[in-house]
Amino acid sequence: MEKKKSLKTFFKIMGIILVAIVIGLLTYLGDYYHADTVAHEALISDNLVTVEEQGNLTIFSPADKEIDQGFVFYPGGKVEAIAYAPLMRSLAQEGFTTVIVGMPFNLAVFNADGANEAMEALPEITTWFIGGHSLGGAMASDYVAGNPEKLAGLVLMGAYPNTTLAQTDITVLSLYGSEDGVLNREAFEQAKEKMPTDVSYQEITGGNHGNFGNYGEQEGDGIALISAPEQQAITVEKIKDIMGGKIDETGK
Length: 252
Hints:
The protein has 7 helices and 8 strands, in the order ααβββαβαβαββαβα. By secondary structure, it is of the alpha/beta class. It has one domain (about 30-250): Alpha/Beta hydrolase fold, catalytic domain (Rossmann fold, 3-Layer(aba) Sandwich). α3 crosses α7 (about 230-250). The longest helix has 29 residues, at about 1-30. The chain starts with a helix and ends with a helix.
């Protein structure tokens, strides 16, 4: 009798613990940074850029142009994907098709191969670059490590690779803000050993971690000395340089 009572108590306690874990997990996953008004406005098509939603993808295409170069983007962890719409729209205005990959629970670890969706949706794109912010950058680097033949380059924004890319001949651009309070600087330095030969590090003076996107202040981040539009404009110019240079080199 006592044994049955003990088992009943045990299962009751375990049930309470399980419910608490589930509630805690759902609370964690449901707490994320939301895109601001500027980001939502960047989703409206005009005579310069056409914006289209295709399932998990948000596609920004230069209007009235045939484009064969594309940039696929992985959002930062716990950040609403469309928070990066202004950045991707600005790059599209420079003549490149850009694609934001939506992530389950706003975490790129659950869709590290999401670039495949973009490539399948846009078979007309013959030269692909990939990039990502923070956790999204780490997952983008994992994708590169497993699929180097599919890509011409990788752009990391406030991020560093998990997996070594030293064996690849991929071109890497690493962008980070001087005021970034989120980026783990020690891990960032150690990760330089994982980079391929063709890598460029570009510090954005006055930039921070969160201003690569449009989702407000991020906990633990430094105070930016330049605005989000200024940081994103610099980012677009740096990406444009690497994409244009790589395309010229390959003849694509």
